[in-house]
Amino acid sequence: MPPSERSPLLDGDAQSDSVLHRIKVLVAAEGEPSWTDSYRFFLFGSYLNVFLLFVPLSIISHTLNWDAALRFSFSFIAIIPLAKLLGEATEQMSAKLGQTLAGLLNASFGNAVEIIVGIAALLQGEMRIVQTSMLGSILSNLLLVLGCSFLAAGFKFQESNFQVTAAQASSSLMTLACITLIIPAAYHTTILPKDAQDRLSSFLAGESEIDSGLLVISRGTALLLLGVYIAYLYFQLKSHSYLFEAPEGEADEPRMSVVAAGVALLLTTVVTSFCADYLVASIEETADRYHIPKPFIGLILLPIVANAAEHVTSVWMAMKGQMELTIGICVGSSIQIATFVIPLLVIVGWIAGPGHELTLFFANFETITLFTSVFLVHTLIQDGKSNYMEGLMLVTLYCVIALAFWVV
C-alpha cells in the first residue's frame, strides 16, 4: 500500500499504535461483560456480601481504639465476604485464561487470606498465631470441610466415587509435608540440649532467640518444599493433568471481564490485608481479656473465616456428585498451605530479619495432631470411595482436636 499523509514516519509509531490499540481493546472489554455489569455482579452477586458492611466498621473500630472484642469481631466478620470475593475474582479471571494459567492463578491466590493473615501476624511477632493458623487451615480442610462434604454426599448418594490415583498422589504429598514438620520436632526433642529447648520454647512465646541449627533445617526444608510444590503443579497441570480432570459439565458464562476481575482482585487483596492486620492486632488483648486460648483462636476460628467460601463450595460440589472437585478443594488447598504457604512464610521471616524468624518446629502435641489427621484422611480416600460414615469420622476427629486446643 503506497504511503499517504496519514502514514506513520517510523515503523515504531505503528507498533506503538498497535500496542495502544490492544490496551484499549483489553480495557474496553469488547465481547466481555462491561465494567458496570462486572462490578454489579461482583458486589451484589451474593447475599454474603452484606457482611462487607463490617469492613468500614473494622477500620473505624481500629482507628478509634474501641474494645478489643469489637475490633476482633468486626475484622473477623469482614474477612468472610472478602475471602469470597477473592475466590470469585480469581475464578472469573480463570475462565478466560486457559487451563494452565487458570491453574497457576488458583494455586497462587487460592490461599490468599492465609498468606495475608500469616504475613501480618509474622511481622507483628505473633509466631504462635502464624503456626496455629497454618496448622488450623490444614486441619480445617482435611477434617472439617472434607468430612462435611462426605456427610452431605452420603445423605444423597449411598456411595460416592472419585479418581484413586490422583487422590493417592495428593495424600502422599500431604504425608511428605507432614513428615517435614515431624523432623524439626524430633530434632528439638532428641538432639537439642535441655537449655536450648527452653530457649526455643521461650522464642515461640516471643522472649528469646532461636537455635541456629533449627533455622538451617527449616529454611533448607522450606526451599525444598517450594521446589516440590512447583513440581506438583507441573504434575497436576501438565504431565498428568488427565488424572485431575473432573467430568465435563456445562461451562458457566463469565460474569466479569478479565481486566475488571484483575482490578477487583488487587483491590480486594489490599482491603483484606488491612482487615487481617487489624484482626491480628486485636488477638492478644481479646484472648487475655475474655480468656480465650490463643491456640484455639489460631487453630479453629481464623481458618473457618479464611476458608468459609471454600467450605460452602466443597459441600455443594459433593452434593452434586463432583467428588474430584471436592477432593481438589480440600486436599489440594491443604497441600498448598503445607508446601507453599508455610515455606513462603519461613522465607519471609528469613528476609524480615531478627525477631521475625519462623521455623518448621511445631510443638509435639500439634505435630502428633497433624500426623494422625493426615493418616486418617490417607486411609479413608485410598479406595476411591466415600460415604457418610467416613465423613462422620473426620468431623468427629476435628471436634476432638478443637476441644483439646480449647484446654491447652
UniProtKB/TrEMBL annotation:
Domain Sodium/calcium exchanger membrane region: 71-237, 263-406
MF terms (GO), sorted A to Z: calcium:proton antiporter activity
Transmembrane regions listed in the UniProt entry: 41-62, 68-87, 99-123, 129-152, 173-192, 212-235, 256-281, 325-352, 358-381, 388-407
Entry's Gene Ontology cellular component terms: endomembrane system; fungal-type vacuole membrane
Compartment(s) of residence: Endomembrane system; Vacuole membrane
Lipid bilayer topology: Multi-pass membrane protein
A GO biological-process term: intracellular calcium ion homeostasis
Pfam families in the record: Na_Ca_ex
Keywords annotated in UniProt: Antiport, Calcium, Calcium transport, Ion transport, Membrane, Transmembrane, Transmembrane helix, Transport, Vacuole
Principal location: membrane
UniProt-listed InterPro entries: CaH_exchang (IPR004713), CAX-like (IPR004798), NaCa_Exmemb (IPR004837), NCX_ion-bd_dom_sf (IPR044880)
Family that this chain belongs to: Belongs to the Ca(2+):cation antiporter (CaCA) (TC 2.A.19) family.
Its job: Has a role in promoting intracellular calcium ion sequestration via the exchange of calcium ions for hydrogen ions across the vacuolar membrane. Involved also in manganese ion homeostasis via its uptake into the vacuole.
Protein's name according to its UniProt entry: Vacuolar calcium ion transporter
Species of origin: Favolaschia claudopus
